Amino acid sequence: MGTTKPRPAGRNSIAQTQALPDKTFIIDNGAYTMKAGYAPGFPPPDDEETALSACTAIPNAIAKTRGNRIYVGAQIGTNVTDWNEMLFRRPVEKGYTVNWEAQKEIWETSFFDEKTVRSKELRVAEPEDVTLIFTEAPNALPALQKNADEIIMEEWGFGGYFRCVGPSLNAWNEVQSLFGDTLLQQPGAAISPTECLLVVDSGYSHTIVTPVYKGQPLQRGIKRLDLGGKHLTNYLKELVSIRQYNMVDETYIMNEVKESVCFVSNDFSGDLEQTWKGNHKHGQPELGDGVVVDYVLPDPNGGKKGFMRPHDPMLGTKKRKAAFSGGAEHLSEDVLVLGNERFAVPEILFTPSDIGMKTAGIPDLILQSLSVLPTGLHPAFLANVLVIGGNSLLPGFMERLETELRQIASAECIVRVRRSKDPIRSTWLGASRLGTNKEELKKVAVTRQEYQEHGSTWVGRKFSGAL
Amino acid sequence: MYHVEVVPNSTTSHATPGWTYVPDKGFDPAKAAIAPSLGRKRGIRDPARTDVSSRQTNAIVRHLAELDRENHRDVAISVPARQLKDAAGRGTRTKTTSNVRRILQSQKTFRNHLDDEEAALAQAASSTTASTAAQRLSLNKITKSSSSRRSSTPATTPRPDPATARSKKDLPSPASQKPSTTDNTTSTNQEHDSRDPGNGLIKSQHDNDPLLKSYTPTAPSERIMRALLSEPPLTYNASRAGPPVTRKSARKFCCICGYWGKIRCRNCHQRTCGIECYKVHEDSRCGAFF
């Protein structure tokens, strides 16, 4: 039995059926940030704010600055002052944890090494006494799943372990209030998943539509669009580099520019007309007033952050004047003027053909996902579309998605598209609510003992639902 | 002496080098974004059978690969060395197993893993071609596009397509029905949907009229749902999005300023919005590269 490995003292060395540890630690291992923290005890807090206070988003990367200094995980958020020419190494590729060498280093610094762990809420001192819930993107390669299982159970040796498809965990969230439905759940009862939920997860590496039925994904309906936040940032970077400054090495800064200026247009051709330079020529007042903005780039020497402000067409003149009169107020700042880039960049999520991709946009993706499911399920899924992931925070995203989905969906169905209150940590929150339901967790998770007895292949089959 | 045997009549099983008939599976989401559908030289400049030439396709593929990059240039960032902390931090933990060592030392990228899996699937496919047709069917399931997969899986019951359901509704309408009444039916249907049932509905003699009945499909049975839930996940490539349902012609943008691309460069086929941007393009970027 499992007595070959030394057990921590104070535990019965006689092999008994081991129960899952009480504490549950959740890592939603995203490509850009990992969302981690302990699940609350039962009953979970009603207020989402308090529930989410246990969850921290940590950059999932090893970064190298201009000065060849290397920062790992949470250090990136706090220790770095100079963001120029920052380079990143990310262990998660295309949404799947691939490089465990880097991932182990980030996990060690963030959760296991007591010298570098930020807070005691994130410290995993004794993995043997902790159940780990680890999320993965749908349709993962079996080889990568096996790698994850083996390294988690053999390197850290968690007492309990559950690997599951990330988007499906959102069904455990309290989505009824989001959609304005009456609460069916009795207060005090164990938490159960929503019956039908269509999760649209638009993250860093890709956008995935997952139909979730009673907390489990309907595998045939999972559809993926290989466009995400990374592509938007790179596209914006490319456009700006062609039109204004060379920003090809400034991934981090362009990501901040994207987050502060980009929006999803609900009237694409109208906005495009507004920003056309030809319109300014004819002595008309600024037509693109609402759309064209200036972004002042961050100045690491002055310790200033970048920010957005309304477009100032006289900026060039002012600069020249200031140069003559000696005032250095405007001289030091570099400004990007952003016009149609603001909405043409996120537009590729809805119309991938704009960059030549012959695939469907997000609204079509939802219909493609539904097309392989029985028609009887369509009304339930269309009425419960939950959007998560960082891209959904772009202004106008939700309105556009709801409008386009309404247009192409069957007229008999009600279409309701809602964004989770915290779209980035929504999956973590769902997992934490699953963590409070010990009965349910016991059914799906494996213990350390089971892993040692049956091995990783068995665990893989268990998580895929074959056992 | 006559020797009687059954000659295999399937074209896929014989392994003649050269050429063979292959079923046209239509759109393959696995390849559409990556591989150009034409030959290398045929259709370099002119779109022959598809709507873009192979040069353009290659440029698009390169562009997409560019957008997928993490950093602009290739860099190797090594994991910072930990000095002796490791031993102290691990404490009660067991020794590194061979699995862990193998995984940590693996420098495979996602692309490598995906290629491995594709190779494994292809091998499995070739080894089973000789065996039963049922197995072949299940393999086809992996590579076929989503629309055709639907029919090959026995798990789902035949169900009315929304479009056919609607046409069924329209078809039996007798000549006496006026178009205005059909308008009424749709509006009442919507009212039925939005209103809470049992909330004082107005009764009329038309309630049982088959023309006015709303054909909401029933929820699938428990057995179907269980079958759906127990399906294995699709492969990475099979879960990719298909072509757009609504076929609109692709929008073209000015490669300089991003406005509508109204004119096309004679040399390189890039689009610009007007004479002003065209001049910029001609002076700086028109390399006639594609």
How would you portray this structure in words?
Chain B: This is HIT-type domain-containing protein. Chain B: Residues 254-286 form the HIT-type domain. Chain B: Pfam families: zf-HIT. Chain B: Keywords: Metal-binding, Zinc, Zinc-finger. Chain B: It comes from Aspergillus keveii. The complex is a heterodimer of chains A (467) and B (290). By secondary structure, chain A is an alpha+beta fold. Chain A folds into three domains: 23-173 and 422-463, ATPase, nucleotide binding domain (Nucleotidyltransferase, domain 5), CATH 3.30.420.40; 185-226 and 359-419, 2-Layer Sandwich (Nucleotidyltransferase, domain 5), CATH 3.30.420; 230-344, ATPase, substrate binding domain, subdomain 4 (Actin, Chain A, domain 4). Chain A has 17 helices and 20 strands. In chain A, strands 3-2-1-9-10-20 form a six-stranded mixed sheet, sandwiched between helices. In chain A, strands 11, 12, 13, 14, 18 and 19 form a six-stranded mixed sheet that branches. In chain A, a hairpin with a 4-residue loop joins strand 11 (196-202) and strand 12 (207-213). Chain A is globular, with a radius of gyration of 25 Å. Among the domains of chain B are: 29-68, no CATH class; 251-290, no CATH class. Chain B has helices spanning 29-32, 54-67, 85-90, 98-105, 110-128, 133-143, 146-152, 162-170, 179-194, 222-229, 275-285, and strands spanning 263-264, 271-272. In chain B, strands 1-2 form a two-stranded antiparallel sheet. The longest helix of chain B has 19 residues, at 110-128. Chains A and B meet through strand 4, strand 6, helix 3, helix 4 and strand 14 of A and helix 2, helix 4, helix 5, helix 7 and helix 9 of B.
